[in-house]
């Protein structure tokens, strides 16, 4: 999956491809957050904006004959056009995604390229739709078939099924079969997550809006206008973060596949934070330090900033994670000691090897260097196996260079197409792919330059007097 953007915030022109682990690093104010938020918004909303058309004739055939067949290959053949149209529609939604003025995105282009092949033929799909304990119709696609078979499960005179409902369910099924394997379900931990952890009870957007309206003065409140008013409080990723932390009481009733099948990961995470999170029946959130009694539990205000920083990740791993997800973490190093930054890097690598895609932005040289260690140790050489064993690295933590994509947010020369259609080379903010060597790891020059400068200054201080 390749994403191309133009005139998105400070990013004049950039493109990046998702890997199993995607890393964006660079200086402040170079476009990392713009790229992250735009990608998250698309992955969260593509089902609503991607249009699959079902002809009226097909619906009438189903209602008349009780069965119809849809050739899915036609949608695969038109997938580029379908995705392109959805990207155009999504671009119009960017002001809402970023909670910003529409003028800032008037020249923005956001494009997604998917390499959709005939792999969908091997997918088996079955969905039964109904209501009030009555199965109304089924949607079935068998392996090696390119047809979706829709069958009524009730007599056509027994119950009236709205044609719009049929179109919606059929279109949604086609999206599941063809597009969802290439568009992962996103979860984001934004850089604002520590504040959301502290103020989770106070961050009630609906209540705050009402209070804002009531505080406007003596004007009479129009309930309909209040209901329909378009609010843009915060960017969508931050809203999702807040909603996630506010729903912890209901979230803890379910287990993720990691909790079910890979509890060792949760144990490692508990070691990183030095304890565990707990939510009471009264929706009270606490942190319980390891080895302490339950009476020693701490509120988020009393807990360390590191505990708050990793809250979203902890609840995601235990209760929300699904195979094939895209876990997006803005600055995973936030408030963490260097040792825990290294341990988080190893945790992310393990998640990648389990089948969860990872997307991070980072300013941490420790995270990059630890990932380099995991890359360099991932070779079948006796001395490397010995080093891994002596230093406590496990095979499930090691990662290959082919699994990783790294981009540097920076100013660089790019060929830009002007408004007149003519191209010119200019220096602008973009995303530059970083080299990743299977033997030496990631070349993160944005960190290396700073480190080399500091070393040069310190060498001058130490040896300059001689």
Give an account of the 3D structure:
Pfam families: AAA_15. It is built from 18 helices and 17 strands. The chain has 466 residues and is an alpha/beta fold. The strands form five sheets. Strands 9-12-13-3-14-15 form a six-stranded mixed beta sheet, sandwiched between helices. α12 packs antiparallel against α15 and α15 (338-354) packs across α16. The longest helix is centred in the N-terminal third of the chain and has 20 residues, at 79-98. The model has no long low-confidence stretch (mean pLDDT 88).
Please name the defining characteristics of this protein.
6-stranded mixed sheet; nucleotide-binding; alpha/beta; P-loop_NTPase; 18 helices; about 40% helix; about 475 residues; AAA_GajA/Old/RecF-like
SSE blueprint and pairings:
Blueprint: E1 2-8, E2 11-17, E3 21-26, H1 32-49, H2 56-65, E4 67-71, H3 73-77, H4 79-98, E5 109-113, E6 125-131, E7 134-141, E8 147-152, H5 163-178, E9 186-189, H6 193-198, H7 205-214, H8 223-228, H9 236-246, H10 248-251, H11 257-261, H12 263-273, E10 275-279, E11 285-289, H13 305-309, H14 311-320, E12 326-330, H15 338-354, E13 357-362, H16 365-376, H17 382-391, E14 404-417, E15 423-433, E16 436-437, E17 441-442, H18 445-463
Parallel strand pairs: 3-13, 3-14, 9-12, 12-13
Antiparallel strand pairs: 1-2, 1-5, 4-8, 6-7, 7-8, 10-11, 14-15, 16-17
GO molecular function: ATP binding
Domain Endonuclease GajA/Old nuclease/RecF-like AAA: 1-368
Keywords: ATP-binding, Nucleotide-binding
Summarize the structure in short.
The chain is α/β, with parallel strands linked by helices and 466 residues long. The chain contains 18 helices and 17 strands.
């Amino acid at each position: 999956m390749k994403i191309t953007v133009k005139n998105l915030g400070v990013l004049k022109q950039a493109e990046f491809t998702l890997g199993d682990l995607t890393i964006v690093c660079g200086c402040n104010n170079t476009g990392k957050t713009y790229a992250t938020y735009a990608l998250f918004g698309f992955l969260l909303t593509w089902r609503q904006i991607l249009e699959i058309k079902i002809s009226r004739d097909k619906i009438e055939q189903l209602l008349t004959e009780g069965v119809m067949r849809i050739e899915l290959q036609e949608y695969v053949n038109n997938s580029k056009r379908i995705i392109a149209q959805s990207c155009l529609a999504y671009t119009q939604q960017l002001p809402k995604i970023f909670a910003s003025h529409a003028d800032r995105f008037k020249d923005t282009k956001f494009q997604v390229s998917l390499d959709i092949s005939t792999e969908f033929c091997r997918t088996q799909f079955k969905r039964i739709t109904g209501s009030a304990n009555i199965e109304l119709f089924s949607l079935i696609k068998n392996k090696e078939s390119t047809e979706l078979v829709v069958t009524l499960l009730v007599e056509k005179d027994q119950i009236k099924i709205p044609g719009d409902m049929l179109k919606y369910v059929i279109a949604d099924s086609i999206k599941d079969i063809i597009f969802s394997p290439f568009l992962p379900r996103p979860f984001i931990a934004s850089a604002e997550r520590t504040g959301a952890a502290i103020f989770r009870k106070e961050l009630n957007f609906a209540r705050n809006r009402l209070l804002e309206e009531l505080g406007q003065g003596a004007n009479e409140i129009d309930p309909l206008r209040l209901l329909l008013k378009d609010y843009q409080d915060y960017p969508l990723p931050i809203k999702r973060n807040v909603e996630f932390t506010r729903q912890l009481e209901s979230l803890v009733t379910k287990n993720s596949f990691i909790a079910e099948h890979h509890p060792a990961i949760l144990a490692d995470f508990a070691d990183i934070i030095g304890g565990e999170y707990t939510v009471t029946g009264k929706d009270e959130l606490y942190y319980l330090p390891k080895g302490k009694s339950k009476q020693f539990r701490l509120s988020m205000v009393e807990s360390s900033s590191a505990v708050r920083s990793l809250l979203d990740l902890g609840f995601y791993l235990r209760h929300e994670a699904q195979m094939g997800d895209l876990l997006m973490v803005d600055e995973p190093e936030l408030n963490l000691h260097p040792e825990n930054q290294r341990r988080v890097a190893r945790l992310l690598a393990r998640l990648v090897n389990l089948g969860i895609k990872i997307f991070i932005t980072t300013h941490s040289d420790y995270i990059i260097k630890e990932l380099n260690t995991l890359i360099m140790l991932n070779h079948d050489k006796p001395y490397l196996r010995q080093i891994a064993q002596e230093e406590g690295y496990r095979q499930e933590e090691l990662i290959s260079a082919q699994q990783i994509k790294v981009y540097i947010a920076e100013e660089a020369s790019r060929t830009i197409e002007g408004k007149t259609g003519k191209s010119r080379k200019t220096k602008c903010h973009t995303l530059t792919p970083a080299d990743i060597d299977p033997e030496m790891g990631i070349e993160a020059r944005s960190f290396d330059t700073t480190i080399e400068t500091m070393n040069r200054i310190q060498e001058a201080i130490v040896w300059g007097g001689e």
